[in-house]
Amino acid sequence: METRLNAAEAEIKPEEAGYSAEALNRLDNMLESLVLERQLQGASYMLSRDGRIFASRSVGSLRHTEGSGPLLPSSIRRIASITKLFTVVCILRLMEEGKLFLRQPVKDWIEEFNHPMYEKITVYHLLTHTSGLRPDPGYFTEPYPASWWDYRFAFEDSDEEKEKDKERTPEEIGERTRSQWIKGMLIGLPVCQPGESWNYSSTGYSLLGEIIRRASGVHYDEYVRQTIIEPLGMTRTFFDVPDEYHSEVCTVNDWDLERLQSKEDRTYLPPRAGGGLYSTLADLNRFGLMLMNRGTLDGNRILSRKSVELLTRDQFPEGIPAFHWGGMLKDLHTGLGAALGGVSDPFADTAFGHEGAGRSSLLIDPAERLVSVFFVPTDVDWVPLSMIGVKNVIWSGIK
Description:
Elements (H helix, E strand, L loop, with lengths): L5 E2 L13 H16 L5 E8 L2 E9 L16 E2 L4 H14 L26 H5 L31 H6 L5 H16 L16 H15 L3 H10 L24 H8 L16 E2 L1 H12 L3 E2 L2 E2 L3 H8 L7 E3 L6 E4 L6 E2 L11 E5 L3 E6 L4 E6 L8 H13 L3
Antiparallel strand pairs: 1-3, 2-3, 2-13, 4-5, 6-7, 8-9, 10-11, 11-12, 12-13
């Protein structure tokens, strides 16, 4: 087990950033303890203020396998649902280009939604997790304890249909394949009417990825690369990590490793718009800085100021009901696909961001000019201190 603290060179000292060095020591001690207690495999974080990095440190192991070496501040990690923020940015970019609008019915883009059960669902509903489409497995124990993928078999081709593929073009085969997974995602009754309640749905974000493909004319992965990754100089952010970087990728179990090494052709499979990216602390810091700077970084404008304001605005000022993994909230507040600070958070009313399974966090506080990124990789089901506690300690250091 790696317990040595690794530190990358910072641009300024904590004191220059108006930040308490003592709070950083508390953070380091807490993360080291969680690693020693085997609650975490490792932990790494990067903090910047006014665009200048004042802390970047790590502790623990890179891999779940023996002798893998240390997790470093520069290590690559699957960021899971933080990918959803990239998807939101892409949708808003297409809105700015006049190619779609948020109150547009999804059926305008995906014909499978042209049905009385789904015709009222809009792009906005998908963005805000209020479509009523199946929540992620585990959000409710019932009625959807399994993923839509487990039901896709019901729409797969018969042997007779597969034989006809010999006479079809690759494009015709591809469109039929897309229709199969879309129908799989729509299996089962919606859990609510559109706009009635908040139900976290990565399925909805996969469908947003398909809308991005159809509206832009290029695959979702490529649109993210052209629109965000390349302009921001995020040179270590990938959907498919190149082989030469595999030795730098953090994994916490065999599934992580198999996913990293997969060479599956995803041309006609669901877009990974709900959780497909790998990235680093430094790259996510750049993405966060762009949002903090109202859509621009280093002279590259990714979004307009008004779109960033829309992304960060409370979409439900009066609150919206949400089961919220057993929380039974009556008045959830959320941005446009971005999480907002709750009333009990030290960053309430000022910060927004997203978390990712496995686990990771990007949190941007424009009022304090602070961007916080951290990875706390673990195969343990839930470690509250590693997410809630880390955020609380980080914000306690602001002078």
